[in-house]
Design goal:
mainly beta; Immunoglobulin-like; 21 strands; about 10% helix; about 40% strand
């Protein structure tokens, strides 16, 4: 069971029934897990004080002795999006399964990284301006134009039917660079091809869900649709000794890690943190903090 240190203006002093002056140091007192003021067994025997009774109860009720403030958490590491842009603001990092070890550098934990980009009211004619575009040359993506809201996916430039309406889709991108052809009801069927935001095998972890908007009565012409692109990956048994390598090799498609201001990594608390501050020239970032 956990205990909490105490704070007060000085030793707990009193005169016993025999006229002896008794002084109990604050280090001999503590609050138990239920919030009751307790006394070290040696000092309790010597002084005759008992938890919940007499002077101890009075000191707690009158707040002469109170729980010491918990130490504030401090930055354990700095996580940044691997790429600049507003899409990094959709990245969350979850720490779980912290397993303490006698040597803190060997404490292990799980890191899960997720990005979810949601777009509403798109059309085949506007998707490129929103997501941006590239072309494919062999196994290389060649940057084309920046989108107003770039994220996990972009459009292959010069491919498809800008007047078409895509069918419903729920698939992962495939290949390297990863891509997904999105068909509709027209002829030719291809409406557009989605590309991963960059080359790399982890681009194929990108999942895309497209849902055409339904209106009543149906409208004529190209229809609007929503698009949700998501990416998630989990790495288990990470330690401070393996942290930088684990993130670089396993999660480097989306994030990087760097030292906090203290100059040393610390074990992060169990929590979910969302990156923020991403702009067209700046990667989003977040401090992960230690536990209290």
């Amino acid at each position: 069971m956990g205990t909490t240190a105490v704070t007060g203006n000085g030793p707990l002093e009193f005169t016993d029934s025999n006229g002896h002056q008794i002084s109990i140091p604050l280090s001999a007192l503590f609050f138990d897990a239920s919030g009751t003021l307790q006394i070290d067994s040696v000092w309790g025997t010597a002084s005759g004080l008992q938890a919940g009774q007499g002077l101890l109860a009075y000191a707690q009720t009158e707040k002469l002795i109170t729980p010491a403030p918990a130490a504030a958490p401090f930055p354990a590491m700095v996580i940044k999006a691997a790429d600049p842009g507003t899409g990094g603001n959709n990245i969350s990092v979850t720490i779980s399964n912290v397993t303490p070890a006698a040597d803190p550098t060997q404490t292990t934990f799980t890191i899960a990284v997720t990005e979810t980009d949601t777009y509403d009211g798109l059309t085949a004619a506007t998707i490129q301006a929103t997501l941006g575009s590239s072309t494919v040359s062999g196994s290389t993506l060649v940057f084309g134009t920046a989108g107003s809201s770039p994220g996990l996916v972009q459009v292959e430039a010069g491919v498809g039917d800008a007047t078409g309406t895509p069918d419903a889709v729920a698939k992962n991108l495939v290949g390297n660079p990863a891509e997904l052809a999105v068909d509709g009801e027209g002829s030719p069927a291809l409406v557009f091809t989605l590309l991963a935001k960059k080359s790399g095998a982890d681009g194929a972890l990108t999942n895309v869900v497209i849902a055409p908007d339904v209106s009543s009565p149906p409208t004529t012409g190209p229809g609007t649709f929503s698009l949700v692109a998501s990416w998630t990956k989990t790495v288990n048994n990470v330690s401070l000794a393996t942290l930088a390598t684990s993130i670089q090799n396993q999660l480097g498609y989306l994030i990087t890690v760097s030292l906090p201001a203290s100059g040393a990594y610390s074990v992060p608390a169990v929590a979910t943190s969302t990156l923020s501050g991403g702009t067209s020239g700046t990667p989003a970032s977040a401090n992960l903090f230690t536990g209290i």
